[in-house]
Amino acid sequence: MSAPLNIVITGTSTGFGYDTARLLAATGHQVYGTMRDVAGRNAQAAHDLGAFGVTVVELDVTDQASVDRAAAQILEATGNRIDVLVNNAGTAHFGTAEAFTPASFERQFATNVTGPFRLSRAFLPAMRAAGTGLVVFVSSVVGRVVIPFTGVYTSSKWALEALAESFSYELRPFGVDVAIVQPGAHETNIFSAVIQPDDAERLASYGDVAKTIEKIGAAMAASAGESTDVAKAIAELIAAPAGSRPLRTSVPAESPAATINAAVAPIQRGVLEAMGLSPFAQRDTANV
C-alpha cells in the first residue's frame, strides 16, 4: 500500500459509513469517523470503531457550529492535510410525498444535501491548497431513477448528484477529484430507520394508495446486497490513481443507474463542449 491517507467519513455509527471506516482503517489509513451522540446512543459504535483504530469525532452535519468544531479538530490533528472526504451521512424519508410537512422535507435536505455541502466547504480549502484530494458523495441508485412514494428522499439524492457533479468540474483545475457512489438496496439499518410522513390527516386522505410503500419496501429489502460491497467500492476509488476515477460508480455495477449514467455522459459532454467548456468534459462521467 502507498503512504497512509488522512480520511474523513461522516455517518459512521452504522451501515456504509461504519463498514467503510473499518475497512480503510484496517488497510492502514488514518480514519476520522464522525457521528452524532458519541457519548450516548452511539457510544458502542464509537467504542468499536476506536478498537479498530478509527479516531471518532462528534459531528452533526445539520449543525454548522458542530461541523466547524469537528473540522478544526481534524485539521489540527492532520496538519491541515485531508486526502479524502467521504460524505456518507444521510437519512431516508419514505412515504407519500404530500403527507410530509415542509419542515420534515427541509430536514431531509438538511441532512442529505446541505450536510455534504457543509463538510465539503470545511475541507476543500485544504485539498485545493495541497493540489490533491478526493471527495466521495454517497448517493443512491434513486439519485438517477424515481420510485413512487420515495419522492422526498429521491429528490434529495437527485440534488446531491447535481451538487457533486458541479463540484467535480469546478475542482478539477485544482487537482481534486469527485466521485459519486450509487448504492442500490443493501443490508443496512435504512429500512428500520425510515422516517415516515408526519401529516397524519393528509396521509389518511390517500387511503389504501399510501400502503403502496409497504410493497416497495418489501421489494427493496428482498433485493438487498451486502453493505460491505459499498465500502469496497469506496476503497477502490480511493486506491485508484488521481484523475482516473469515474465520476459515478453504481453498486452493483449493473443497475438502472449505471445504464442511465452511460447514456447521459455523452449528452452532458456535448453540452459542455457547445458552451466552450471542453476542458471540463475530458473525463468520462459514467462508470469505468
SSE layout and pairings?
Elements: E1 6-9, H1 15-26, E2 30-35, H2 43-51, E3 55-58, H3 64-78, E4 84-87, H4 102-130, E5 133-138, H5 151-171, E6 176-183, H6 200-204, H7 212-222, H8 228-239, E7 248-251, H9 256-274
Parallel strand pairs: 1-2, 1-4, 2-3, 4-5, 5-6, 6-7
Helix pairs in contact: 1-8, 3-4, 4-5
How far apart lie the N and C ends? 22 Å
Tally of distinct domains: 1
Number of helices: 9
CATH topology: Rossmann fold
CATH architecture: 3-Layer(aba) Sandwich
Percent of residues in beta strands: 5-15%
Shape: globular
Profile the largest sheet: 7 strands, parallel
> What is the helix fraction of residues, given as a range?
40-55%
- The helix/strand class is alpha/beta
Number of strands: 7
Give the mean pLDDT. Answer: 93
* Unreliable segments of 5+ consecutive residues: none
Description:
It is globular and about 55 Å long. It has 288 residues and is α/β, with parallel strands linked by helices. It has helices spanning 15-26, 43-51, 64-78, 102-130, 151-171, 200-204, 212-222, 228-239, 256-274; strands at 6-9, 30-35, 55-58, 84-87, 133-138, 176-183, 248-251. It has a single domain (6-254), classed as Rossmann fold. Strands 3-2-1-4-5-6-7 form a 7-stranded parallel sheet, with helices on both faces. Strand 1 (6-9), helix 1 and strand 2 (30-35) form a beta-alpha-beta unit. The chain contains 9 helices and 7 strands.
